[in-house]
Amino acid sequence: MEPGGGGGQIAAAVSGSAAGVDRLSALPDDLLAQILRPLGTPDAVRTSLVSQRWRRVWSLLPELRVPSLPGDPIRFRDALAAHQVRLRFLQVLSTGGGAADPKSISIWLPAAAARVSGNFALVVNQISPAAEEGRDGIVDLPCFQDATGIMIRLGHLGLAVPPPATGVFARLVSLRLECVWFDDPSELEDTIASRCPCLQHFRLCHSLRMYTLTVSSKTLLKMELEELQGVWELIVDTPELRELIVSRCLLDDDPIAVITAPRLESLEWKYSAGEIDESVELGEMPHLRSLGKLAFFVYGLHDLSYNRTTVQFLQRFRAIETLKLMLGYLPEINIFQYLMEEMNVLPDLAILHLMVDPNGHAFGAGTFHVLKMCTRIRKLILELSGSSDLEEPNACGTGCICEQQTNWQTEEFLFARLQEVEIQNFRGSDHEDSVVKRLFESATAMRKLKVTFDVSVTESKARELCHMFESIVTTPGVCMDFRYRNHTKV
User: Fold this and answer.
1) Which Gene3D superfamilies match (predicted)?
2) I want to staple 384 with a disulfide (CB 3.0 to 4.6 A). Which of 38, 167, 282, 425 is the partner?
3) Other CB atoms within 10 Å distance of the CB of residue 343
4) Which helix (H) or strand (E) holds 336?
C-alpha cells in the first residue's frame, strides 16, 4: 500500500492492538472495510459481534459471496437493503446445503436488484420438494437496472421475467440463464429485444419448454444456445453477432431455423442426426472464419446419418479460414464399411485442425483423404488422441480392415502453401511415423514445425523422436520446436 493510503494507520493500529489497546476500532470505516475484504463473507458478517463499532462495517464491502441460500429470506432482504455501498459483485450459492424455495428467493431478489451495480450470480443445485411446476415453482426475476452481468442457474425451477413497467436492464452486458423453464418464452424474447440496450453476451442452456425461440438484438456479439430439449423453431436476427453456438437444441425431425447474422465470424453448430437440412437457413455470412468442431466416423454403416449431416453442413460453405474436424474410429470396425469416400468436398481453408481418435487403428487413409482436399492450406494442426495414463493404446490386431486402405502411401500429394505444421500428442508408433514421413514428403514450403509429445513419452524417447523428425524434414531452414511433459522444451 502506498504511503498516505492508509497503510501506516493500519500498521499502527495493529501494533497498538498487540499491546492490548483497541486501536483498530478507531480507524476510519474505509480502512476497516479493507481489513475485512480478504475474509469470506460469513466471517466478515461475524465481525459485527465484536462491538457496536463493528456492527455495520461489513455493509461497506463492495463484494459479497454467500455460500448457501439464506435461511431467513426476510432478514437477508433487509440486510441487502441496508447495505451502505453499491455491490459490484453479489454471489449466492446453494452449495452450502439446503433446498431452494422459489418463494423465499423471490423475497430477497428485489433488494439484490436494487443494490447490484456489477455482477450478480445465483446458483441453485437442489430445489425444495414443495416446489411445484405451477406458480409455486417459479422465481420472480426483478429488473436489475444497474447490473452489468447476470448469471442464474435454477435447478429447473421456473423463471418469470419482470413486466416492462418495472424498467429496463440499462447496463446489462452479459446474461446467462441455465436450468430454467419459462411459462411464456416470448417474455424473455421481448426483454432481450427491447429492454437490454447494451447486451453483448447471451447464454441459454439446459432449459425446458423452449419449443420456439426468437432472439432479436441489435447489440449482441456472442450467443450460446445449448441443450434446449426440443426447439422446433429457432429465429435469430442479430446484425452485430460475431460468435454463435447452437448445441443440440433442434428437434430431429423437420426443425425450422432462420439465422440472420451477416457479421458472424465463428459458427459452432453441434447437432443431433437430421438437424441440418433444407429447413435450416443460415443466411449470408461473408465474414465467417471458423465452424467450431465437426466430427466424422471413418468406419460405420453406409449412409450414416451423423456423417451425412456433417457433409451437408460443410457443403453450405465455399470458403472459411479455419476448420476443426475430428475423425473418429470405433474400437471394433471389422463389421463396418469404410466411409471416407462419402466426404467428397470441403470448403477452401487456410487452417485445418484435424483431430484423430484412432482407437488403436491405422489412420493414414482417413487422414490423407481429408488432406488431399486441403492442398491449399497454410497451417495444419494434427491432434492425435492423447492418453489418460502411461499405457500404450490397444492395437487393433492383425487382419483388421483398417490396413486395407493403402492408396495414401503412394498417391501424389503436394502441399505447396503449407508453411506451418503442429503435431500434438505424438507417441512415435510405427504408423504415426509413416503418416508424418508421408506428410513431410509433400510439404515443400514448410517453415515451422512444432511437436508436442504424448504424456507417456519419456525424455529419452522424446530425444530419440526429435532426431527422427530432424532426419525426415528435408526442407531447409525449418524452425523446429519439440515439447514433452507439461510442454517442457526438449
Assistant:
1) 1.20.1280.50, Ribonuclease Inhibitor
2) 425
3) 19
4) none
Burial category of 228 from C-beta neighbours within 10 Å (exposed 0-12, middle 13-18, buried 19 and up): buried
pLDDT digit string, tens, across residues 121-135: 999 987 655 555 555
Closest CA to 268 of 291, 301, 288, 240: 291
Residue tagged 504415426 (cell numbers): 432
For residue 445 the three cell numbers come to 514450403
Write out pLDDT tens, residues 69-80.
888 899 889 888
- C-beta separation of 108 from 73 below 8 A: yes
Q: Is the pLDDT of residue 10 over 50?
A: no
Residue type, position 151, single letter = M
Task: State the burial class of residue 368 (Cβ atoms within 10 Å of its Cβ: 0-12, 13-18, 19+).
Answer: buried
User: Can you tell me the distance from the alpha carbon of 486 to that of 132, in angstroms, rounded to the nearest whole number?
Assistant: 50
From CA 215, how far away is CA 220, in angstroms rounded?
10
Q: Measure the CA–CA gap between 65 and 89, rounded to whole angstroms.
A: 8
**91-100, 112-121, 442-451, 479-488: least confident range:** 91-100
| Cα dihedral 145, 146, 149, 151 sign | negative
What would the pLDDT profile of 235-275 be if each residue is shown by its tens digit? 999 999 999 999 888 876 778 899 999 999 999 988 754 45
For residue 357, CA distances in Å to 103, 127, 304, 393 come to: 49, 40, 18, 11
Within a 10 A sphere around the Cβ of 107, how many other Cβ atoms?
17
Cell readout for 391 is 499405457
Contact between 426 and 454 under an 8 Å Cβ cutoff? The reply is: yes
Task: Report the C-alpha gap between 28 and 16 in whole angstroms.
Answer: 16
pLDDT at 340: 96
Report which of 398, 370, 395 is spatially closest to residue 383, judged by C-alpha positions.
370
Q: Show Cβ contacts of residue 87 under 8 Å, excluding neighbours closer than 6 positions.
A: 62, 63, 64, 112, 115, 116, 117, 118
Alpha helices, DSSP H only, in 128-264?
185-194
Q: Smallest Cα–Cα separation from 466: which of 486, 488, 445, 447?
A: 488
Determine the angle formed by the axes of helices 102-115 and 73-81, rounding to 10 degrees. 0
How far, CA to CA in Å, does 160 sit from each of 186, 215, 285, 286, 295? Answer: 11, 17, 34, 38, 38
Q: Cβ distance 126 to 152 under 8 Å?
A: no
SS (H, E, C) 97-135: CCCECHHHHHHHHHHHHHHEEEEEEEECCCECCCCCCCH
